[in-house]
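Quick one:
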Amino acid sequence: MKPIQVGLLGIGTVGSGVFNVLRRNQQEIRRRAGRAIAITMVADLDVARAQSLVGPDTQVVSDARAVIANPEIAIVIELIGGYGIARKLVLEAIEAGKHVVTANKALLAVHGTEIFAAAHRRGVMVAFEAAVAGGIPIIKALREGLTANRIQWVAGIINGTTNFILSEMRDKGLDFAAALKDAQTLGYAEADPTFDIEGVDAAHKVTLMSAIAFGIPVQFDKAYVEGITQLAAQDIRYAEQLGYRIKLLGIAKRREGDAIRHTRDGIELRVHPSLVPAKRLIANVEGAMNAVMVQGDAVGTTLYYGKGAGSEPTASAVIADLVDITRLHTADAAHRVPHLAFQPDAMSDLPVLPMGEVVTSYYLRLRVADQAGVLAKVTGILAQADISIDAVLQREADEVGGEGSTQTDVIILTHDCVEARMNAALAQMQALPTVLAPIVRIRKEELA
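Output:
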């Protein structure tokens, strides 16, 4: 049987990895796919560089549309990135009847509904394993391996840059700025790291996982996104003393309504720093590694761990998608695995809940005057708001401000409550004259 022909749009770090791994492991891949897979055409603006990477047997062009127009090309791999031209090219490839493989989480998180609908109409596949957690096969696990389960929640360390920074802050006692500089020096962070450190990259990924886990449309615009730029080294140290580690988590959680708490059914979709018990495996994921936990009603808790980025780890996921498409290339479209795991006419209309309706627990750090009665006032406000306290840690004044200091830190861990109630309590506590600085609030996830 003739090889299935593939066109590659963009041959940067991941693209070159795809080409190299496909060539190196071609016999193994052919045995699994049932036929050979060959990248026969590449589009890249730097034609000379691209040609030097792929050799003389692969055609290189500067115009991506020439790849899409080639009738011999059955699958188009989009590795350009971004929302703009990538969206146009993916939609054009779909309209031309090509299957698409992409690692572009930003594109799918924002325009996925449009893209998947177009692919469904044309009867082609859009595969995106590489868009979330690099080489970890989390999309396939959610979409196929856990298909018997009612997924209850997904929580992941899905951005290696921020995890590296948090590891440096914890291990070396660095502040955020110093840890970021180290990450940039070592190549873990871009010159402009905004998408990573502000949580946007993780939000793109958890948006896709939420759609597959719960059968809802991709709704990036409804995700709550908070990065790590405001984290202080002392909070990482205090968390450690309390038996927790701070991780930037992407969380998607199914929430059943609760009449007592006056909450409704819906999906929590959020990215923010979280205290995680140090005894959890995911709390011990260090450096630039990724990990995703999934809780299903039948299987319980499962954990997926590995490299979340890099040339060949990401290429591994891209090629897995190529193999899947090759196997199903001639299958009736109705018999393929749906893009978002659920049949298009069976998607749920469960709402993504605003952050004020989220239920979680909290770490609070208050810089207060070192005088009698302060703690009683703070805990009184929490009690009036019906917020239960789990633990309190009060530092000695000289530990915080040096000998003779007149201020100290009070750290409070709470039990679960609705975020809106916590917001109201925080406003009251902040107004106390004995609270001397903005209160630090970090959410806490037990992941039990």
